[in-house]
Every structure is written in C-alpha cells, then in structure tokens.
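Review form for a predicted model. The reviewer records the input and the model, then writes brief findings.
Reviewer: anonymous (R2)
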Amino acid sequence: MTTELYFIYDSHCPWSYAATPLVNALQQAYPNMNVHLLHSAHYIGKDSAGEEQMQAAAKISGLKFGRDHLRYVNSPKNSIKTANLMGWVQSKQADKQLPVLNAIQRAHFIEGNPLDNKHDFTAIVEKFKLSPSNKVFKDELSTDAEYVLEDIEEIQQIIGTTGFPVMVMTVNDNAIFIDHSQYLSDPQAVVAAVEKEIAAISK
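Model under review:
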C-alpha cells in the first residue's frame, strides 16, 4: 500500500495551526507515508486572519495561542519567507518538514514570533541544523516555493476548491479528501476515519 498525504496550509493561518495536529496523528499512524506540506503563501503583508478567526480556531481545537501572538493578532502577516524556508526544507531535507512546521507554528502562535526577517528564524534553523541560502529570506517567493504553488494549483483543480487548509490522502490510486474541520477537537479521530475509508477502498 502506497500512501501519500498532501496538506495545503499557510504557516500564519490559525486554522492551519489547528489542523497540523491531524497531520501529526496521521504521520504517527502511517510512519511510511510520504507527507507533502504545501505552503500556500497566502499572507503577503497586507492582512491577517484576525482575532475573530483565531478565537474560533482556539475554541474548536483547544489549542493555546500565546499572549504575544494575541497582542498583534490583527496586524498584517507576511508568510513569504516561511513559504520559502518550507519549500527549501521539502526539497533538501524532507524528513524534517513536519517537525520544522510544528516548531514554526509554535514560534508564531505561542511565542508571538512574526517570522518576518532572517533573524526570526535563527533558533529554528539552528535547532534543526538547516542550512538555507540567503535567498530563502528575501521578500519574493523562491523557486522552491513557486514549485509548491504549482503543486497546490494541480490539487485545487482536482478537488475543486481554492480554500485552505486542505488535506488529501492518496492510497495507491485512490484519493481520500479529509474534512479536517470534523476532527479539530480530536485529532486522533481522523486516524479512525481514514482507516475506515481505506478498508472501504480495499474491499
């Protein structure tokens, strides 16, 4: 059985933060599954999800949002450098992409790190022994990040939605669209739901 998981997200989106525990649960349940983390680079310094969406995501998921994040929750967010870094990690050190994403979301949503300049990433780069080039920390999308956007576009055409976060799992030639919104309060429940789907496919 060949399994792949595609997760379309934005590092600065509270709903993506709320959905990441589902990705963690699925990766633990299927350790041999290929996970593709696809950063949509939605936030370009003009807007943010805002306090209302953050509060809704916190209420449903039970996840913690730190005081320093709350303080600037309505100020514009820019996720381009994070998209570049995640694109780099995916192409150069793919086995680290999920732990790196968890660390990035923790830095942003709990510690209030805006992840807006090279210095903001120093602790994460050092912790995971990453060696991205300076191009990653520029204000425009890198080639790796552009490739990711092309992959996202292909998936969006197949599933017919441009929203995010989005989770699609493929099992051999079959695709399972995972409605993440049903499992935000209980990430482990997504594993049982996927097992049911796989059993139905395998009959």
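Findings: The chain has a mean pLDDT of 94.
Further findings: Residues 18 and 106 are 11 Å apart (CA to CA).
Recommendation: see findings above.
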